[in-house]
Amino acid sequence: MDLIIRQGDLVLPGGKVQRGDVGIRDGVIAAIAPQLSESARREIDATGQLVFPGFIDPHTHMGIPILDTFSIDDFESGSRAAAAGGVTTILDFTVQRPGQSLEEALDERLALARGRCHVDFNIHVNITDRPERWLSQIEALCRRGFTSFKVFSTYRQAGMMIRWPQFRQVLAAIRDAGGLLMLHAEDNDLIERDTEAHLKAGRLDPIYHARSRTPEAEARAIQRAAEIAGELEAELYIVHLSSAAGLEAGLRARRQGVRIYLETCPQYLLLDESRYLQANGHWYITTPPLRSPADREALWAALARGDIDTVGTDHCPFTRAQKEAGGRQFHRTPNGLPGVEWLFPLLYTYGVAEGKLSLQRLVSVLAENSAGLFGLDHRKGRLAPGMDADLVIWDPSARGHIDGARQHGRADWSPYQDFPLAGRVRWTLVRGHTLVADGHFVGQEVHGSLIPARSRTQTASG
Ligand SMILES: [Zn+2]
Q: Where are the alpha helices (DSSP H) in 233-380?
């Protein structure tokens, strides 16, 4: 063995915790046993620690253009933050510029990630410019290992919106290719109506971001998209679900037999719209907006029941200076929050340690389900022999808190400032490479690599 992790409390598939050793050879988990008799070149004593499969953040945006600026993390700094928080795989998105094909946009994005990303990665393919024109590229992209696509039912003025007839065409093409379509679900008509009303009346304070993008807008878009998915018998993945109304629309569709998957984010579980009324309320502008405490609780309950499939962060950080440049006006402030570093520590602390979430649910929503949906489950998502040696060793007896001044990404603030944490990431390994050692980021060389996804049909047939 190259490395043996000794006597950790191993969080196995299904959430079962068993004390034992994990042996790693050639970047893969070679053996798991109560006690491995062989020796290794290196050993880590994990007594009293929880050993998790590496976590997957299915939703990050490193260095993307928003308004007249860029999200501040690139693949290097953003993946450093990911590793520090126990995320060993990130799924980012392309940026399709007008006139660019899906393949060109993908190759441009891959060039930014390759050799820069500390953790493993794959890229979702955004379809924003004249969607009907690129239907013929979808199958080839799936064969290349890029099986997930994303469209937006809003952002018409930014030239990113898909119309429902085109949505139907794209969804059918992705279904036929064995891919998965992800939807940013907000009804554009409602959003334009409410936004214009507030702008016209000079209501520009941060709270009007939330008033302009309502739960009803989310629910209406989910309902419309789910109807089409049902008619086409296609699968559909809703990104960053934020509201009880949106949740209800999704669950209603599921009861009617639609194969709809729901993702939420830590910000919708842990923050609410009262943040917009604070002096620094504009820092919290993100889309969808933060909602009410009742929405937050509805999402927690759904997560605990298993009605929400994944938690991603929508990591899209801006510095305080970037946020200030919008003059505290909601429509001029870049949208997005830092998150990837705190995904697992927050879900552990406010889910598991508070008794809201079982360890089984935690590993499902942060590892297993994303691996399955995005075609990575032949290598990722489970602590089991034969899987990539992506591991997180967590010390549940450590105590600390989040401090935006001491993070690994480039944001100089955190939406979770001073939130207490019920533990600490001690070690993060990606395919056996040590990125975090005894609580410190040590990833001097870049080891992350592109993990090609298997299509839904390949996955179904094993
Ligand atoms: Zn996003």
A: 244-255, 266-270, 293-305, 320-324, 343-347, 359-363, 369-373
Ligand 1 centroid distance, CA of 313 (Å) = 8
Per-residue tokens: 272: 């609410």
Q: Which domains occur in the chain, in start order?
A: 3-53+389-441 (2.30.40.10), 55-377 (3.20.20.140)
Helix (H) or strand (E) holding 24: strand 17-25
User: What 3-state DSSP class applies to 248?
Assistant: helix
DSSP-assigned letters across all residues of 58-74: --B--S-EETTEE-S--
Q: Which residues surround ligand 1, an ion (CB under 5 A)?
A: 314
Give residues with Cβ within 8 angstroms of 437, minimum separation 6: 427
At 265-300, the pLDDT tens digits run 999 999 999 999 999 999 999 999 999 999 999 999
CB atoms within 10 A of CB 14: 11
Cα(287) to centroid(ligand 1), Å: 8
What is the 14 CA–ligand 1 centroid distance (Å)?
29
Mean pLDDT of 54-71: 97
Q: What is the pLDDT of residues 131-175, one digit of tens each?
A: 999 999 999 999 999 999 999 999 999 999 999 999 999 999 999
pLDDT in tens, 188-239: 999 999 999 999 999 999 999 999 999 999 999 999 999 999 999 999 999 9
Please report the pLDDT score of residue 16 as a whole number. 93
Distance 102 CA to ligand 1 centre (A): 18
Cα(61) to centroid of ligand 1, in Å? 7
What's the predicted TM-score (pTM) here? 0.98
Q: What does the alpha-carbon distance between residue 238 and residue 260 come to, in Å, rounded to a whole number?
A: 7
13 Cα to the center of ligand 1, angstroms: 28
How far, in Å, is the centroid of ligand 1 from the Cα of 316? 7
Task: Tell which residue, 361, 315, 349, has the closest CA to residue 335.
Answer: 315
48 CA to middle of ligand 1, Å?
36
Q: CA–CA separation, 185 vs 224, rounded Å?
A: 9
Could you tell me the pLDDT band of residue 460, with boundaries at 50, 70 and 90?
low
* Residue percentage of the chain with pLDDT more than 90: 98
Q: How far is the CA of 183 from the centre of ligand 1 (A)?
A: 10
∠ Cα 292 294 295 (to 5°): 70
